[in-house]
Amino acid sequence: MHDKTLSELAVALEAGEFSSRELTEHLLARIERLDGDLNSFITVTAEQALAAADAADAARAAGKAGPLDGLPLALKDIFCTRGVKTSAGSRMLDNFVAPYDATVVERLKAAGTVSLGKTNMDEFAMGSSNENSFHGPVKNPWDPTAVPGGSSGGSAAAVAAGLVPAAMGTDTGGSIRQPAAFCGITGLKPTYGRVSRYGIIAYASSLDQAGPMARTAEDCARLLGAIAGHDLRDSTSVARGVPDYTEELEAPLTGLKIGLPREYFGDGLDPEVEAAVREAVKVYESLGASVSEVSLPHTHYAIPAYYVIAPAEASSNLSRYDGVRFGHRCDNPQDLIDLYERSRAEGFGEEVKRRILIGTHTLSEGFFDAYYKKAQQVRRLIRQDFLDAFEEVDVLMGPASPTPAFDLGANKDPVSMYLQDIYTIAVNLAGLPGISVPAGFVGRRPVGLQILGTHFAEARLLNVAHRFQQATDWHRRRPAIAEENV
Amino acid sequence: MQWETVIGLEVHVQLATRSKIFSGASTAFGAEPNTQACAVDLGLPGVLPVLNEAAVAMAVQFGLAIHAEIPEVSVFDRKNYFYPDLPKGYQTSQMYHPIVGAGEVEITLDDGSTKRVRVHHAHLEEDAGKSLHEDFHGMTGVDLNRAGTPLLEIVSEPDLRSAKEAAAYLKAIHSIVTYLGISDGNMAEGSMRCDVNVSVRPVGQEAFGTRAEIKNVNSFRFVERAIAFEVERQIELLEDGGQVVQETRLFDPDRDETRSMRTKEEANDYRYFPCPDLLPVVLDRAYVDHLRETLPELPADKRARFEKELGLSAYDAGVLSASREMAEYFERVKDVCGDAKQAANWVQGELSGALNREGLPIQHSPVSAEALGELIARVMDDTINGKAAKQVFQALWNGEGASADEVIEAKGLKQVTDSGAIEAMIDQVIADSPAQVAQYRDAEPDKRGKMIGYFVGQVMKASRGTANPQQVNALLKEKLDALC
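C-alpha cells for the assembled complex are given below, as produced in the milestone run.
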C-alpha cells in the first residue's frame, strides 16, 4: 500500500481493494517501526487518525466519499491542530496544544483526509537542514548520513520513506522545495496569498506560504485544490477562484517557452547537479518546448534582502512567546524582566535567537532605513526581474539547490547554510509559485529540478511538472527504507 | 519674566464598534476578566488580524467632521515592545500613513470667542489589555477584555496656550465624536483619555521649550489641573536656573501633581515597521463621499443655526448644542411647542435645574421632550398659567402622568378664564375680607395698587391657582374701585 501515490490510493480505496482503516493501520505500523531512526514525526496521532479513517470508510460505504476521503497524510508541526501539540519544532511551544485548527487543516479535514501526525521541522521554520529542531535532526531516507533539507525536512523524509503518501509543508525561503529536492519528492510552493496562512505559526508573514509535498505533481494538484482559496481570516489571502488543478495536467508542452536564468547556473553550482538539470531540460525539448537563456540581474541580492526582511518580521512575530500566556515559562521568575529573559533564553534555540537579534537590530532606530527599507526596495527589483523574464518565457527552470543533500553537521557556519537557499529565496521575495521535481541523482542523493511560474500559474507549473514525470521515472525511485516491509 | 504655555494633546477615543478592531470579540464594557478575548486577542500562535470596517468608517467620519485630508491609502504598522497586557508583543497602530490627515477643530472659550486648533493627524490603533495590581497578593493579573478595542488617536498641533484652551479642545473633540456617534465619550469608563504635551517659553520667543508628556489623563477637570501643576513646575524650575527634562510624567489626581515616569534616555525604541498581516487600507472616493453625505449636523454648524435661524443668544446656542443629546432634546421640545426661545428657557431653566439636582444626564430625563414641549404649548395657548406649569412639570418629573395634558386634567389645573366664575370668586373674597376692603378704601389711591396683591392671592388660592392672573387683577381693580 505504501508504494502507491495518493492518486493511486484514491483509486484503490474507491475500488475497495482496502479500507482507509487498513491503510492507516499499515502506515501507523510503518511509522512505529521505521521512524525511530528517521525522526520525521514529532507527534503521531494514531487515535484521531483511525477515527478519521473510520469516518471516511463510513462515508464511502454510504456513497458519500469525496475524492480525498480516507487518504492519509501528515502535517508539518507548524500547522495549528485542535487538541494536538503544535510545537513548531521549538522547546518554546513543546507544551502548546492548539485550541483551534489552521484553515489548511480545517479544509483537509473537511475533504476527508486522515492526518497521521505532525512532522519534524527546523525550529519556527528557520533552517535549511532540519538540524535546528528541538526534537533532534531528521535523517535523509536516501542516506542516513545526509540531512533531509529544511525547514519542512520531516514532511519530505516521511513521504520519501513511504510513511505517508503526502504531507503539508510551508515555504518561507525554500522550505518546501529544497527538502523535496533533497529527498527526491515533489513539492509545490504556491503563489503568496493562494493558501490561507491562518493557523500557521508565523515565521516571516510576508513570505510564508503553505503547500503540498508528495510523490507526484498530480498528487500535489489534488491537494492544492483542497487547501487553496480565499479565507476571510487571512487578509493577505487572495479572493480568486480555485481552478481544478488536475484538469490541465495532460496539456501538451509544444510551444512551451522555458527560460534558464543565467544566474542560476553560475559559481557554486555542483557540476553533477547542473548536469542533471540540463538533462531534464533536454527532456522538455524533446516534449516540444523551446529553451532560451534569461537574466535575473538582482539575484545576488536575494539572500541579503531575505536575511533582513525575514528576521525583521520574525523578531516581531516571535515577541508573543514571552512566558506569560502560553508556551515555555522559566522556573521561579524573580520579576517581569527575569521572566521574559529566562523564558526566551531557555525556550528558543540558537538559530531562532540569532534571527531575532538580527531582526531587532535591523528595525532599530537609525538602522531601519539602511536595512529594512533598502531590503524592501531590493525586493521590488527582484520581483521586477521575474516579471520581466515572464514577458519572454512561460516558465523558468533551474536547480532547486546548488548541491544535493549535504552531510549532517557539515554546515556549521550560519552564512554558508544561508547560501544553500540561493535559488529558492528570491521566489518568496517575489511571491511567485515554484515546484521542485526529482530529476536525477548525485551518487545516492537526489537532485531537484525547480520550475517557476508567474503569479497564480500553479496549474501551468503542475502541468509542466506532470508531463516531465510521464516522460521520466526519477519520481518513482525509492530509497531502501521505503521498500522495507513491516 | 513672562511665560507662555504651549500645549499639544493626543486624545485617544475608543470607537463604538460592536466588535474589536482586528477580531470578532465583543467590546462591551464591564464583562468578567478575559471573557471577551478570543484567540486573536490572546495572540495565540498562528492567528491573524482582520480589519473591522466599522472602525475605518468611524475614523473617516471623524476626519470629515474636522475637514481633514483623507488620504487614499493608509497603512498599519507594528509598534514593538514587551508588556504583559500586550499579548502579541506589539501594538498594531499607524505610524507613517495614518487614516486621517491634517484638519482643524474650532473651540469656544469662556468669553464666547472661538479659536481654531490644528489637528496634525488621527490614526487607528488597538488598545492593550489591563494589568491589575490589586487582589493578587504581590502578583499582577492581566485582563485582556480591552485588548484589541479600536482607538482613534487624535494628535493636535501645539496650538493650545492654556489649561482652559486644552479643556475646551478636549470638550470640542468629545462633542464631535459623540455627535457622530462614533464613541460613547464615557470618560469614567476610559472611552476618552489623553496624553498632554506641555512646555513653556518666554513670551515672544519663537522656539518651543522642552516638553514633558503627561500620560493618560482621563477627565476634563484633570486635564486642567495637570497642566496647571505642570506649568507651574516648569516655570519654577526655569526661573531657578534649572532645565526641563524631556520625559513622560504621570498625573496623580489625589495629590494634584505630576510625577516622572521615565526620561527620554529610558524610552523604548518601538521598531515600527509595516504590519505584514494587514493590507494597506485603500479608500475609494465614492466610499468617502458617501460618508461625507451621511454626516450628521455637527456642533459648530448646529450652534450657528441655533443663533441665526432660531434667534437664540450665542450663550444659549452654545449650551444647547454642547452635546448631541442636549441638542436633540431641545430641538424636539422646540418642534412640539413651536417656540425656540420658550423651549430654550425651559430646557436651561426648570429642566436643567432638576437634572443637576439629581445628577442625571439629559438622555435619562424623566420628563420626555414631547411632554415638556406640550407643557410649554399649554402655557402659550393660555390653557395653564405659569404657576400651574411648574406644578405640571413637577408632576411629570415625579412620573405622575405621561403627558402634560393628562396631568393638567387630573389635577384640574386648567386655567379659569370664564369672567363669570372669576367674578363669583372675587365677590366671595371681598365679602370675606371686610377689614382689608376697609383698608383699601381708606388708603391713598396711589397706594392701592400694592394692596391689591392680597386680594389676588386670595382669589388665586380660591381657584387653586387656576384662575387667569391677568383677568383676576383687572376684575378685582374694577370691583374694588367701585366700592370706593
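DSSP finds 16 helices and 15 strands in chain B. Chain B has a mean pLDDT of 92. Further analysis is deferred to the final report.
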